[in-house]
Amino acid sequence: MRNALAIARRVLSQFAHDKRTLALLFVAPVVVLWLLSVLLGADAYEPRLATVDLPASFQTALDEQDARITDTNQAEAERLLRANEADAVLRMRDDTTLEIWAEGSDSTKTAAAANVVAKALSEAQKDAADEMKADVEERTTAIEDVLVAQGAKGGPLADELDSFDFDMADYLPVQDVETTYLHGTEDWKMFDFYGPVFIGIFVFVFVFLTSGMSLVNERGAGTMTRFLATPVKPVQILGGYTLGFGLLALVQAAVILFIALTFIGFPNEGAVWLVTLLVVSMALASVTLGLLVSGLAKSGFQVIQLMLLFVVPQILLSGLFDLSSAPEWMQVLGQCFPITYGVDALRAVMLRGADFASVGIDLAVIWGFIALFFALAALKFRKKRVRG
């Protein structure tokens, strides 16, 4: 028992003298838990619906739902849907049939839109039933008045009875509903939407861990010190590591995509080469971030802790959770990370069939992050050489 206590004291003493590890043990989990509390505590998602010339009673019922309704014309509604600024377009195909044209790439948002429409239809049916009931009561009162005034014979009463014919369909603003999809099908599940997110996140996380731990091991073995003592420039050192890990990332991306598309069955409406380019770009961003952050770690254990601080918040704000109902500052913060742009581009290509021009801005931003991380890492290496 005494020996066990001595070992325990030694472990605690090591942590007490390692201020960096001690801080990461408490700061990183608190930051992650706080972000999760804000994300999961946000209001429920309100679907975005574009409506075109709907019956007044049904439009009124929709306006009373928890949704963002835009009453517009056909051309503008189609533009909103194709730009992913609306989750569904509602329009009347004929006098009795409502057509729901769903964006379709997010099953959760599509389900939310369908739920709002169902509630509005239910309200419209109740209003129609109340209206028919009022008409029946009014006609019944009229017949009773005739009975009292003239008895059960002849003229006016017979006319009233002949017109005593009510059909619920005459009161309903919508009798049939048909749903079509701009992207995907009704068979798409929630996992189909999150597939591109998981591909990007897994590549980013594993490349970050691999590159970060490798650099820590290189430094521990003295390899990095020997590099810095040679005429090799810091940019060349970092370039070599980036190129090496980049080639490994290319192989990793090819294997992951092959398994995901062939065996798991992730949907892909776009070009495979473009998906590969996006995944490799995210991997290079992860490599350069690992080069930058690894200088803060003294061991592989600290690399994992730093991942909680530098990578996990990016994952939470990347689109894994819907941020449309989150605080505005959190939405802005989410746009400051490379994972966000990679996930958005992967979804656009794999779920909506976007081409290179459509995701060009996202790619440019990712490569901007790569250049920034690489430049900061090179500057840090240069300072180490000067101090050495």
UniProtKB/TrEMBL annotation:
A GO cellular-component term linked to this record: plasma membrane
Subcellular location: Cell membrane
Keywords annotated in UniProt: Cell membrane, Membrane, Transmembrane, Transmembrane helix, Transport
Membrane topology annotation: Multi-pass membrane protein
InterPro entries in the record: ABC-2_transporter_component, ABC2_TM, ABC2_TM_bact-type
Top-level taxonomic group: Bacteria
Transmembrane parts of this sequence: 21-42, 193-216, 237-266, 272-296, 303-321, 356-379
Stretches assigned to the ABC transmembrane type-2 domain: 158-384
Molecular function, one GO term: ABC-type transporter activity
Main location: membrane
Keyword Transmembrane helix annotated: yes
Family: Belongs to the ABC-2 integral membrane protein family.
Protein's name in the database: ABC transporter permease
Organism: Eggerthella sinensis
Organism lineage: Bacteria, Bacillati, Actinomycetota, Coriobacteriia, Eggerthellales
